Amino acid sequence: MEFSSIHISMWFIFVQLFLFSSNSTSSSGLPGNEVDRLSLLAFKAEIVNDTRGILSSWNESLDFCEWRGITCGRRHRRVTVMDLRSSALEGQLSPNIGNLSFLRTLRLENNSFGHTIPSEIGRLFRLQRIRLHNNSFNGAIPSNISRCSNLQYLLLYGNNLSGKLPTEIASLSKLRVLDLGSINQLRGTLPPSLGHTIFPNIKKFYCHMNQFSGPTPVSVANASNLMRFVILDNKFTGKVPRLAGIPLKSTSGSSLGVSLLKLSYGDLLKATDGFSSANLIGAGSFRSVYKGILDQHEGRVVAVKVLNLQTSRASKSFIAECEALRTVRHRNLVKLLTACSSIDFQGNDFKALVYDFMVNGSLEEWLHNSAQQGDNPTNLQKNLDLIQRVNIAINIASALDYLHNGSDMPIVHCDLKPSNILLDGDMTGCVGDFGLARFLPDASRPFSAQESSSNAIKGTIGYTAPEYGSGTAVSTYGDVYSFGILLLEMLTGKRPTDDMFKDGLDLHNFVLTALPERVKEICDPRLLHTEESGITTATDNRGYLGQDDQRQRADECLISLARIGVACSAAMPRERMDASNVVAELCRTKDVLVGTRMPRERP
Questions:
Q1: What is the DSSP letter of 333?
Q2: Is the Cβ–Cβ distance between 144 and 171 less than 8 Å?
Q3: Which of 92, 145, 158, 94 shows the shortest CA–CA distance to 119?
Q4: Residue 205 parent element (H or E)
Q5: Contact 118, 95 (CB under 8 A)
Q6: Among the four residues 261, 298, 302, 486, which has the most C-beta atoms within 10 Å?
């Protein structure tokens, strides 16, 4: 009897859904919230793959306002928000989305939606946010999206969209962010009217890595509120108009994000002396990095990362790095100057990223220089004293804190290790190589809900969080683990892949078992040789710190670094520290080391 009633109920829903979907006018006679319920069921019917069971709650046992990803208004019980971002959904977007007439926010980014964006989306005049980026939508941008007159955010990058940018889009006068960036193949010219309508109010405009051509509209000069204007890697001609009287730099671009450092394959070939092995400063499985000198830019020294496009990861790495670094700016992140996506003189695809050159190389070279490069006296001079290691650790942690907690959308680096930490002329540490970086929709969500592709490469052996090996989603916890291992490597001078780590012993346990009494025994011998001199430099000019006090502070610092590294590299993600707390603890450690804070009393 129970089986029969279930089937009758499901048949009734199917008939309703069929009648609703087959006649667009039939919804006019239904109550508003019933229209919403049936529209959501029609949306679900177009999903062909829901591996995580995200839509399992979309059934008769719950009111539709309680379905996962759905928010309703309190007064009318109508759907106002659909938020199914990063849910591993595959299918197409149902035209019935246009019946959710109270919808204000549509967030479907980071999924696998394909087919075209339905034109019915233009019915949603209350919509303020459309985020469909990082999917597989194809075809043209529907022109009647311009009817969404209250739209403020339109993010369509990372799809397979083609055709021209509809001229009607210029009527969206309330738009604040328009992002049509990478992977799309949009072409034609930018509508001349853009500058008279949306640009007086827009704050961020991206259309990079498309096929747009022609001049940049002169009316763009009306962009008085513009903070970002990224149009590189298109086929535009002429100069970028001066933006609202704000002066533009002629080399690395302005604070508006306009990339004026335009470099061709020929420019980079010349800058690196034909990509000479003499200028090779680093290499990996899918990229080589060269030192280059840009004669046409006052001899500016740069680092040129050339992608090996024969490997499957290279193009994805190029896109990931462009997407990550175009939205962030921090003193402890390597500065991306420009990207070059072109063809070489043989007609082959060519992609390269150009950065500021970091004169002191990588942290890897400073930690393991003598072991890698023999006993050359020049190499042996490369060593970091205690205060330098603490400062660099603070630099790295500050960069992570910014990526996790300070940017518009949290970013997980996914490959934190010494070779990806570069040092400038002042020995300031900067995090680089964002080729595996991932965006997270919400870092505050529980760990188990932070979805990502479980079969993707998520780092380097020894630094990768253990939970990634079992297919757990990418999260900020993973970066903190990598930082913990890196910090322990800075303390001990031992790589996590050292031959001594076997039979259940790893770098984490090696340090844990030494805490607190035997920490000095497991420290990098070179660190101990410079410990007192480093401290003296940091504290002697205060005038009252004796040698015993200095030694006590150094010992306290070593123990604190060990404890922070162990806490960050805990096996269970939830037991690890947050990046902001790591920064705070490291700053306290430095204060003790230099004498501005009293060391703890030990029993």
A1: B
A2: no
A3: 145
A4: strand 204-206
A5: yes
A6: 486
Phi then psi for residue 215, to 5 deg, are -75, 155
Residue 240 in tokens: 């970028």
Sign of the Cα pseudo-torsion (450, 454, 456, 460, in order): positive
Cβ-contact 23, 33 below 8 angstroms: no
Q: Measure CA of the first residue to CA of the last residue in the chain; give whole Å.
A: 73
What the block records as the tokens of 189 is 């010219």
* pLDDT attached to residue 409: 76
Q: Are 435 and 417 in contact (CB under 8 A)?
A: no
Q: What is the pLDDT of residue 493?
A: 93
What pLDDT is stored for residue 381 in this prediction? 64
Summarize pLDDT for 436-474 with one digit per residue, the tens. 888 876 443 433 333 333 344 467 899 999 998 887 888
Nearest 10 degrees: CA dihedral of 249, 254, 258, 263? 50
The pLDDT tens digits for 298-346 are 778 999 999 888 777 777 777 777 777 776 778 899 888 888 877 888 8
Joined tokens for residue 453: 């592709």
Q: For residues 474 and 452, is the Cβ–Cβ distance under 8 A?
A: yes
pLDDT at 27 (0 to 100): 46
- Of the listed 83, 179, 401, 415, which one is catalytic? 415
- Is 415 part of the annotated catalytic residue set? yes
Q: Enumerate the H helices of 513-596 as residue ranges.
A: 525-539, 547-568, 579-594
- Is pTM beyond 0.85? Reply is no
Among 265-269, 535-539, 568-572, the range scoring the smallest mean pLDDT is 535-539
Go through the domains of the chain in sequence order and give each one's CATH number: 28-237 (3.80.10.10), 265-356 (3.30.200.20), 363-594 (1.10.510.10)
- What six digits make up the tokens of 360? 């002191």
Angle between the N-to-C axes of helices 386-401 and 547-568, in degrees from 0 to 180, rounded to the nearest 10: 30
